[in-house]
Design a protein that fits this description.
The chain is α+β, with helices and mostly antiparallel strands and about 80 residues long. It has one domain. It is built from three helices and five strands, in the order βββββααα. Strands 1, 2, 3, 4 and 5 form a five-stranded antiparallel beta sheet that branches. The chain is globular.
């Protein structure tokens, strides 16, 4: 993955009794958002198809690690900047 691409992970969310985590990849000009555990592309603004394929592969390969990060996020503390 390009070292200039930043990744943000949401806290675990629940919609319609399904758990989900959202992963956002950004660089200066582009962004793409994925939902896991479905490994589904939610939106893409500027990444080329081959870049999206690489990001998708990363999300699939690192899903367990991403979920562990999401489980450790406390939304209230994050909102308060702690």
């Amino acid at each position: 993955m390009n070292p200039e691409i930043k990744m943000s992970v949401s806290a675990m969310t629940r919609t319609d009794n399904k758990k989900a985590v959202y992963v956002l990849f950004t660089d200066d000009r582009k962004s793409a958002e994925f939902a896991i555990p479905e490994c589904k592309l939610i939106r893409n603004d500027g990444f080329a198809a081959d870049e999206i394929d690489q990001l998708m592969q990363y999300v699939k390969n690192e899903q367990d690690s991403i979920l562990d990060v999401a489980k450790g996020i406390n939304p209230l503390k994050a909102f308060m900047g702690k």
